[in-house]
Amino acid sequence: FDDRDGVIWWNGEFRPWRDSKLHVLSHGLHYASAVFEGERCYGGEIFKLREHTERLLQSGRILGFEIPYTAQQIDDACNETIRRNGLTNAYVRPIAWRGAEEMGVAAKATTVQLAIAVWEWGAYFGVEQRMKGVNLAMAKWRRPHPETAPTASKAAGLYMIGTMSKEAAMDEGADDAMMLDWKGDLAEATGANAFFVMDGEVHTPKPTCFLDGITRRTVMDLARKRQMKVVERVIHPDELPKASEVFLAGTAAEVTPVRRIGTQDFTPGAITETLMKDYDALVNRRG
Ligand code: PMP
Asked: CATH code for 7-120?
């Protein structure tokens, strides 16, 4: 992925994609002092850019560092990176990390670096293709207690659990993993929040130890606009047989139906399809 054309914004200047390399003694690499964002640009406009930028800044503060740019500077940098790379439909990846000036667990002398990379990411499959749904394996690893890890931060270190879970799921032939929280209740997939349709209502776990996704909140609003009842609550995996539909929501996943979790099958249905279409219309400004 590192050997390609294009430019990456790095601390206020553009560098060629291939030359955007950092030192092996970077604190972010050794101690995971890194936070990032995942955004999507639709038709030249980054969806909910300011919310993502605010979350990026807040993710850094939770880890104890201040990213040395204002929200406006970061928004402008994201837009300029899209423009300089000649893209309109793209994924946007800002990442901030502590540099290599000091080695050790505590490293207050390090500088905080910020880079922004963008790459082409057209529309996913059409609604019909996506309606087939994805297959999730139950993860062995759980989302940690919020006093064990900085779970409200989109912190690189937390993705170690996601990578292990997703790779294990893929080894079993599944597409992704469904993760439980530290108590054993349903939490989220490795890169998207989860929704369960029960008795015609849209239920979703309370985000007490994982990201309260921007897409999650958008989908909850869309459901309410359709007069659907939205319920945030603790959901135990024993309740899965009660769900008539299951879907995931995230910037990359958008709204993606689920056809299986572990040994439980689901049939993507009308509520999922409605929310997929409403989300597509909203991000593509047809709504
Ligand atoms: N959970 C995890 C672990 C994620 O990586 C993401 C994607 N950022 C989400 C949830 C969904 O968040 P958002 O809708 O803000 O992209």
From this structure: 3.30.470.10
